[in-house]
Write a structure and sequence with these properties.
156 residues; mainly alpha; two-stranded antiparallel sheet; 3% strand
């Protein structure tokens, strides 16, 4: 950026504000999950498995926004703790489908309640309509940055 170009106004930059919100949410989640002996990635992995049993290491890594290597290390630790199980051999191909154990489900239940409280606190000053609008707007922003542009967008 040259000296003549204006910088980004942080008070009104949506990207900066989203990053600040994400950072505040991350800190609040760490604060409630840490006493439970969990990280955000640990929680995310268990939540993904509860909703989609049998996900592979790669699928879990994508869903939790970490590398396959990081997820593999986490899954090994969760297996040792008795929270998840994976077959010794892949039933098909190379992917080892992972599932929650009863202990994993109980730990997730406690963590989910804590995470719900954080989300409720975050949204406490928004009514239901505003919350729905926020979800729609964020979904649109995510799609704009992750999906290929449509032909209408390309013509602008």
């Amino acid at each position: 950026m040259s000296q003549g170009e204006p910088g980004i106004e942080l008070d009104t930059s949506l990207g900066y504000m989203l990053k600040a919100a994400a950072s505040a949410l991350h800190s609040a989640l760490e604060a409630v999950l840490s006493p439970l002996g969990m990280t955000i990635t640990h929680y995310s992995c268990l939540e993904l498995l509860a909703q989609r049993p049998g996900l592979s290491n790669s699928e879990l890594a994508r869903g939790a926004f970490v590398t396959r290597q990081s997820m593999n290390v986490l899954l090994q630790a969760l297996e040792r703790q008795g929270l998840v199980i994976r077959p010794a051999r892949a039933p098909v191909g190379r992917a080892l489908p992972t599932e929650l154990t009863d202990l994993g489900r109980r730990q997730l239940e406690t963590a989910s309640a804590a995470v719900r409280r954080v989300e409720q606190d975050m949204l406490a000053n928004l009514d239901a309509s505003e919350q729905d609008q926020m979800r729609r707007l964020l979904t649109t922003c995510i799609a704009s940055l992750t999906e290929p542009p449509t032909s209408a967008t390309q013509k602008r």
